[in-house]
Design brief:
The protein is mainly alpha-helical. It has 13 helices and 2 strands, in the order ααααααααααββααα. Strand 1 and strand 2 form a beta hairpin. Bound molecules: Phenylacetyl coenzyme A.
Length: 308
């Protein structure tokens, strides 16, 4: 009881919790769940964009997209390391992902159909990720908060590259502008779903706020994202993707239409447009990459023999 009070008073006074500090088992498990879901999202999130690297329209776009996808891989690795400080191994985390037991962000179960989707993903998906993750730079668990500082810096470049693709398409031909509009229409609703279920349906928010894992609720962040993004849509000269989007003077926020929550639950429970394809792709690369892991281990062993 006394330990729990000391722990909570540290959190209340904004001191970070470090790996060797005492923490309630539920706090540890909650972090393993959230950080590993986040890491898996970064890794699975490489797939929709990686698919477009060979088809990028110019050398500049190809180099930029390649660097972005590589950054996402790096984010996954920092996050797996942060998660390991809680006493779970990388192998266990990988096994949870490959078996389908672990969740990853719903957004990566949608297909990237055209080049404009590279714009929409960078602009909207990274934009939504930043909105959520800037808060996480002040989350109570030290290793997670510190990993988020670097991740957020990189994500803000990603968002700008996505917006730049959209801007170029919108200044281009009618067909290109149509492609940008279509990408916005398709990625808008799934981007809003990234923030998680409505607050009244969120199982973890109350406790996460108390432990300062979350500093804002799912609905608060979703609203902030909508308010920030509408002026950007207008700047691009695109039509709003939801007919119910209207500025509400009283609330000082945009009102918006109904999110299809049935679709959200279906996607996070494994039945979205690309769930099977994403996991299959990860499983294949795990098995096909076995020789690389074996070679790296053999090389490390050989080197350690030399130094003994
Ligand atoms: N997708 O009680 P809550 C990125 C689950 S990184 C799938 O509200 P919580 C970078 C939730 O796990 C994107 N599942 O949960 C990039 C829980 O299920 P469980 C990832 C979701 O944790 C860009 C249940 O629903 N970002 O995009 C989702 O308090 C471009 C109840 O929900 C992070 O992971 C969802 N969208 O709040 C990469 C950020 N939402 O575990 C490549 C860190 C909810 O009990 C290209 N995570 N669920 O079985 C968080 O901030 C939180 O975990 C939330 C959910 C806000 C996502």
């Amino acid at each position: 009881m006394e330990q729990e009070q000391i722990f909570q008073s540290k959190i209340d006074s904004n001191q970070s919790i470090e790996p060797k500090d005492w923490m309630p088992e539920k706090y540890r498990q909650t972090h393993i769940r959230q950080i590993s879901q986040h890491a898996h999202s970064e890794i699975i999130g490489m797939l929709p964009e990686a698919n477009w690297i060979t088809r990028a329209p110019t050398l500049k776009r190809k180099v930029t997209l390649l660097a972005k996808v590589q950054d996402e891989g790096g984010h996954g690795l920092y996050l797996y390391s942060a998660c390991e400080t809680l006493g779970i191994s990388r192998d266990e985390l990988t096994a949870q992902l490959l078996s389908g037991k672990a969740k990853y962000s719903s957004i990566f179960n949608y297909p990237a159909l055209t080049w404009a989707d590279m714009g929409a993903i960078g602009w909207l998906v990274d934009g939504a990720a930043i909105m959520n993750q800037v808060m996480l730079t002040r989350t109570s668990y030290g290793p997670y908060a510190r990993a988020m500082v670097r991740i957020c810096k990189e994500e803000s470049f990603h968002q700008r590259q996505g917006f730049d693709i959209m801007l170029t398409l919108c200044k281009g031909t009618e067909v290109q502008k149509k492609m940008a509009q279509d990408a916005l229409n398709r990625w808008w609703w799934p981007s809003l779903m990234m923030f998680g279920p409505r607050d009244e349906e969120s199982t973890h928010t109350t406790q996460a706020l108390k432990w300062k894992i979350k500093l804002k609720t799912n609905d608060e962040l979703r609203q902030m994202f909508i308010d920030q993004t509408i002026p950007q849509i207008k700047l691009l000269g695109l039509e709003l993707p939801d007919k119910d989007l209207k500025w509400n003077e009283e609330r000082n926020h945009y009102d918006f239409g109904q999110i299809d929550w049935d679709e959200f639950w279906k996607v996070i429970n494994g039945d979205g447009p690309c769930n099977k394809q994403r996991l299959e792709s990860k499983r294949n690369s795990w098995f096909e990459g076995a020789w690389v892991r074996e070679a790296a281990l053999a090389y490390a062993e050989k080197k350690s023999d030399i130094y003994i």
